Amino acid sequence: MKLFLDTNILIDYLSRRKPFFKEAVQLRVASLIGDIELWCSIQSFIDAEYILRDALPIDVLRSMMEKSLRFINVASSPSDELLPGFESGWPDLEDYLIATCASRVRADYLITRDSEGFKNSRIPAISPKEFFAVMEAKFGITYEEIDL
């Protein structure tokens, strides 16, 4: 199953933002064990650096982003997507381009904490919590922390 991450999910993971970090880690675990394939827009990495550069030393942030490429595939928007984005009526161009990338990689779900921003997306936009509910309902899979 392919999941396309919105920028806010990438930021949750990189910044360890509470209370959202736990679900971001669960997404990582699901990808590492092969249950899902994670995708993200190249623009999301650029935006994450811009947003987090004052919160984390740049070398630490870039190292974290580089390591995330071990489990996140990256897609980019071709320049010919800009004009349709401008004409689309979407209130947020970034959301339009993320949804377009998600469609291009044939994602099953777009994972975001802002599903309202993706109401025009062809790919269903759901929260991490909603995604994990789908995994449990459809496949009986849960991703819980355990003490070792």
Shape: globular
CATH superfamily membership: 5'-nuclease
Q: Please indicate the count of domains.
A: 1
Helical content (DSSP H or I, runs of 4+): 40-55%
Element order: H for helix, E for strand: EHHEHHEHHEEH
Quaternary structure type: single chain
Gyration radius, to the nearest Å?
Answer: 15 Å
> Order of strands side by side in the largest beta sheet?
3-2-1-4-5
CATH topology: Rossmann fold
Terminus-to-terminus distance: 28 Å
Largest sheet geometry? 5 strands, parallel
The overall pLDDT average reads 93
Strand content: 5-15%
Number of helices: 7
What is the strand tally? 5
Helix/strand-derived category reads alpha/beta
- Poorly predicted runs are none
CATH class: Alpha Beta
Give a short overview.
This protein has 148 residues and is an alpha/beta fold.
Describe this structure in words.
It is a single chain. It contains 7 helices and 5 strands, in the order βααβααβααββα. The mean pLDDT is 93. The protein is of the alpha/beta class and 148 residues long. A 5-stranded parallel β-sheet has the order 3-2-1-4-5. Helices cover 49% and strands 12% of the residues. It has a single domain (2-139), classed as 5'-nuclease (Rossmann fold, 3-Layer(aba) Sandwich), CATH 3.40.50.
Short key terms for the protein model shown above:
148 residues, Rossmann fold, alpha/beta, 5-stranded parallel beta sheet
Topology of helices and strands:
Blueprint: E1 2-5, H1 7-15, H2 21-32, E2 37-41, H3 42-52, H4 58-68, E3 72-75, H5 82-87, H6 93-104, E4 109-111, E5 125-126, H7 128-139
Parallel strand pairs: 1-2, 1-4, 2-3, 4-5
